[in-house]
Give the backbone structure.
Amino acid sequence: MTATICGTGSYIPSYTMDNNDIARLVETSDEWIRERTGVARRHIAKDETTVSMAAEAAGRALADAGIPPEEVDLILVSTISSDVILPCAACEVQKEIGALHATCFDLSAACTGFVLAYNTALAYLSQGVYRTALVIGSESLSNLTNWKDRGTCILFGDGAGAAVLRAVDPEKRAYLPVTHSDGSKGAALSCKSRHDYNGLIGKIRPEAMLDESHYMQMDGQAVFKFAVKRVPEVIGEVLKLNRLDTDEIAYYILHQANKRIVEAVAKRLNEPMEKFPMNLQEYGNTSSASIPILLDEMNREGRLAAGQKLVLAGFGAGLTWGAAVIEWR
Ligand code: ACO
């Protein structure tokens, strides 16, 4: 048994900040940001929360799949920026959408999170444990962004994307994912908890007590070098494992971190840029939401055809990276 994606959805906050808005906060320019990252604008959650965006994206994915919420057996939310610690975001989504029979939990693996959540759901569905799963990536990174740090605040944005997976008969070909982690390099991208275990015991630190380490900190060049080496490698591994050739892949849906990373991956794989769709110019890096948002856009624009093979590839904090092959419904 395996599973296919039978519906996608996304939610993007309407409030936007373009590069000129960022240039009013830190010393930078529209030209620098576009040239070094490809980002022109990002959407920021003002009235929305990680949970509300996740629930909206989930509802849209279920509508696209034509599946009522009562039929969902599993809800997985991948996030590093949930507004709730307890109950988990997935349980909050369950409540919002009325998925009464679902088992719900969250998963945290930064920008590789959606690929890992997809793999987790696939494993459950392939084993016959569940029949229908909702896999969601939702992030309010603006809450974790240091708006005084020009090395990071130019990159990130908020949003949510979701996919509905359904178990399908054994005749359909199953694909195995490849994933890796390297905890020894975790310092390249970090963000401390906002709990103050020493002073306030279990309390969230007040805004005034937060220092730079409580916001995302990144060694940009180290992350860049890691991504341009490891992402083509893991894509090569996943193709080899599944005995696929690059000719058979219609699109590579990469985590949307930086245009130059996507271009470098395409070059190393010797594949044309047309196979690497991008929307980071509009949304920036939305961490675990970026892959499902892009997938949903492509689905709704009618760019995906039945039987097409796609590679999803994520990479980010941890360090973590991985790739999965999907055959479009
Ligand atoms: N505006 C203007 N100048 C800047 C800015 C800015 N926003 N940021 C840095 N600079 C300056 C630096 O100070 C430096 O100046 P100097 O030469 O005088 O010292 C110069 O520009 C070059 O800085 P670099 O850090 O070398 O710039 P780089 O080309 O590496 O671009 C960037 C920085 C965009 C952050 C890049 O390294 C990058 O995209 N890295 C990958 C980030 C990423 O993909 N993260 C994904 C994981 S996200 C997750 O897991 C949550």
Residues 187 and 218 are 8 Å apart (CA to CA). Residues 2-168 form a domain with the Peroxisomal Thiolase; Chain A, domain 1 fold (CATH 3.40.47.10). The chain has a mean pLDDT of 95. The pocket of acetyl coenzyme *A is lined by residues 28, 32, 36-37, 110-111, 150-151, 154, 189, 220-221, 223-224, 227, 257-258, 261, 285, 287, 316-317 (CB under 6 Å).
